[in-house]
Amino acid sequence: MGATHLPSTEFDGTDIEDQLEAEAEARLGDPAEPMVQLLAPDGTLGSDPAFSEYAQRLDPEKLRGFYADMARIRRFDVEATALQRQGQLALWVPLTGQEAAQIGSGRASQPQDYIFPTYREHGVALTRNVDLAELLRQFRGVSNGGWNPKDTNFHLYTLVLAAQTPHAVGYAMGIQRDQKLAASAASADGTAGQAVEPNAAVIVYFGDGASSEGDVHESMVFASSYKAPVVFFCQNNHWAISVPSSVQTRIPLAHRARGYGFPGIRVDGNDVIAVHAVTEWALERARKGEGPVLIEAFTYRVGAHTTADDPTKYRESAEESLWRARDPLERLEKYLRAGGLADDAFFEQVRADGDELAAYVRKTTYDLETPDIRTAFANTYVEPHPLVAEELAWFEEYSAGFAEEAPADQATADVASADQATAQAEGTAH
Q1: DSSP secondary structure letters along 181-241
Q2: Given this model, what pLDDT does residue 185 score?
């Protein structure tokens, strides 16, 4: 094993790490401050000493793109919910209210970055060019995934709470080591300084409920210890199904990062400009080898946890009304209209594009074919296995015990034909 494979000792580079931590704290300011916000609910753009420079990089086209993305994913969410209610999906996980947190962070990533989602990051999937119709394959029960992560660097959904966080840190540590090996090889063959692949980072998404899982704690320990290039993106939507975030933590979730020795920052999760700025900064920091960051996007799940949930059983409608007034789409629309950056024609086109996407998703879902259940047996092991063969034989025998039901019109015709045959038989007998 070469020296480049070995981790540093706990005493190596301590002064440098302290300096990086101090620089991060200087940029973030007082951790007691409530959160970073650039675009207020009334659509006015404010300033922030640390992040206004990132907002200034956004031209009108990008801002219109943010709005179009948020509107499209909300329309998709509405259509997917309707498909589940109509029996076309087994389950659906709505995202309405969290569009800014997802679009802002997703658009801050670069193609070489790798993203680990949970099961609600439909907006992030949009920013990574995942075919949204493919998302529904898993929720229809016809696929274990739905898309190839290698095509977009967007991992498959993880349904087990926080299980993706150690995967993300491990992947980030792999990136870290690959980059060290590449640098060492370049130095050895004299190509150092020449064009190389851009550094990459990892974003891992989870919710306020998942933050209580041990996987998150263990992941942050490893990420901090090895300065892994990973951004922990927590969407604090206030409710872990029916458990409020006040039960998950007594302090802002972003403050937990200090216990692990890396920066934590709370951002207005309904402000797409602020979310983009904070995530861009965190990813830049990670790519430069300065270690992990925890981002807490302070947002709200307007709808149900899933289509199997009824939020009226555990929260007040007044709370929902309060957060609907902070709608991320309305906020950006006010800003675009006030600044003359978008007109009625733009918003009409966005609505038309959303309806077109919904129609495409609906048709594609209807066209999905149910796979033969026998493929589940074939895909259990790489090679044939006697136990699986035995189970398949039992299944075949069990299935053969059920007679296929004839269509209703065919059954009626068969009954009529049988009655006629009986009458003829009786006449012949007499």
Answers
A1: HHHHHHHHTT-TTS--PPP--EEEEEETTGGGSHHHHHHHHHHHHTT-SEEEEEEE-SEET
A2: 86
